[in-house]
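In the laboratory, one determines a bound structure by crystallizing the protein with its ligand and collecting diffraction data. In a computational setting the workflow is compressed into a single prediction: the sequence and the ligand go in, and a structural description comes out. We illustrate the idea with magnesium ion.
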Amino acid sequence: MNAPLPLHDAPAQTAPSVNALPDDGPAKISARNVSVFYGAKRAIDDVSIDVPNDYVTAFIGPSGCGKSTFLRSLNRMNDTIAGAHVEGEILLDGQDIYRSGMDVVQLRARVGMVFQKPNPFPKSIYENIAYGPRIHGLTTSKSELDGIVESSLQRAGLWDEVKDRLADSGTALSGGQQQRLCIARAIAVDPEVILMDEPCSALDPIATARIEELIDELRGRYAIVIVTHSMQQAARVSQRTAFFHMGKIVEYGTTSDIFTNPREERTKDYITGRYG
Ligand SMILES: Nc1ncnc2c1ncn2[C@@H]1O[C@H](COP(=O)(O)OP(=O)(O)O)[C@@H](O)[C@H]1O
Ligand SMILES: [Mg+2]
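The predicted complex, in structure-token form:
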């Protein structure tokens, strides 16, 4: 265990990349030898990966291989699961997010998350967005907060649909709108990374297409990691893909290499539909 360190004093660490491709730039997130356990059961087994800043990274692999478990370890969401524990190291901009003294609420603002099932608060559309900036002290005035609400909804592609009904409940929106509201809520606290766990699996094809367009628009502004069981979706929205199998990353590469020219037999089997 490290001694408690204030955020700004934590030493940035530089380790050689395990997977960076020539265009990847410095890693936004580096996981090193990460294992995740539920009680005695090991769900993630010694995974190391660098997640680049400027691309969308897809995590693919058969159900139960550990994609959600690993994704949750990237913003310490597994902390909320009784019996779960994480070993190894996860660095955000070179700083260990599991060090003692880490402010987890602050971390989850920097590394936001969007879930499979849209989960707006049972509050107004306005409040869904305003809540985070308010508790994080990002604004001092009502007009500033109004501005954040508007720009977050704009960026999530929802503003035009809701600008005349900001007082309506977030839960009254359609599923696709609710998911964009959740993305706007993540954006409102000015995150650096957005983690998405099968964000379209509860949506119809039109709402799915809208979210996929949105992910493409957000690329470059935020590091984005998306778990998807749809290989078509991974091919459409991501530039980097990690293929998980039985708690390990079998292969990482450009999305086009993974889908058209995989090196590993297990990747080949998965993308050709032999299992999964
Ligand atoms: N809260 C939990 N408690 C116990 N085991 C879990 C829990 N969540 C997931 N698991 C187990 O961990 C493994 C990986 O699950 P998960 O990360 O959900 O996989 P994926 O997202 O790839 O479908 C599975 O064997 C699953 O049953
Ligand atoms: Mg999952």
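The longest helix spans residues 142-155. Keep in mind that any predicted model is a hypothesis to be tested, not a measurement.
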